[in-house]
């Protein structure tokens, strides 16, 4: 009976969502800060499950900038969005980027981006 209940529970539960994948990123010096562009891929199903943001972190995981995505991109995969004016401490050689989805929140995976020499 226990296995029947577990099977019924799984059959009626929504499918588990997947983290958004950071496919690539670039950083360009721009004025007093940096412009960060991120390419995301995610198996979006519309408003019920979509990549809704990404953030720039330092090595310790502190947030340096956040890009909020206001709507699904189900018909635009992968897609690129930018965040201008990111202030990075002097001497920063690399940043990390973490994606977020509307279902799972912030992902575990971080994408490391080496900054171009200035």
Task: Give a brief description.
The protein is mostly beta strands. It has one helix and eight strands, in the order H-E-E-E-E-E-E-E-E. The strands form two sheets. Strands 3, 4, 6, 7 and 8 form a five-stranded antiparallel sheet that branches. A three-stranded antiparallel sheet has the order 1-2-5, with no helix packed on it.
Characterize the structure shown:
Helices cover 9% and strands 46% of the residues. The chain is mainly beta and 118 residues long. Strands 3, 4, 6, 7 and 8 form a five-stranded antiparallel beta sheet that branches. Strands 1-2-5 form a three-stranded antiparallel beta sheet, with no helix packed on it. The chain has one helix at 2-12, and strands at residues 21-30, 33-41, 51-57, 63-68, 79-86, 94-101, 105-106, 111-114. It has one helix and eight strands, in the order H-E-E-E-E-E-E-E-E.
- The poorly predicted ranges are 1-16
State mean pLDDT (0 to 100 scale): 82
SSE succession? HEEEEEEEE
Q: How much helicity do the residues have?
A: under 10%
Number of helices: 1
Structural class, by secondary structure, is: mainly beta
Radius of gyration: 17 Å
Beginning-to-end CA distance, first to last residue: 66 Å
């Amino acid at each position: 009976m226990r296995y029947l209940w577990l099977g019924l529970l799984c059959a009626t539960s929504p499918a588990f969502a997947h983290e958004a994948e950071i496919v690539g990123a670039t950083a360009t010096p721009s004025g007093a800060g940096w412009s960060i562009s991120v390419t995301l891929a995610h198996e979006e199903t519309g408003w019920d499950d979509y990549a809704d943001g990404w953030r720039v972190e330092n090595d310790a995981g502190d947030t340096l900038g956040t890009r909020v995505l206001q709507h699904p991109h189900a018909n635009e995969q992968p897609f690129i969005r930018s965040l201008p004016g990111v202030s990075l401490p002097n001497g920063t050689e690399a940043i990390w980027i973490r994606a977020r989805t509307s279902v799972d929140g912030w992902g575990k995976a971080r994408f490391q981006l080496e900054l171009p020499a200035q």
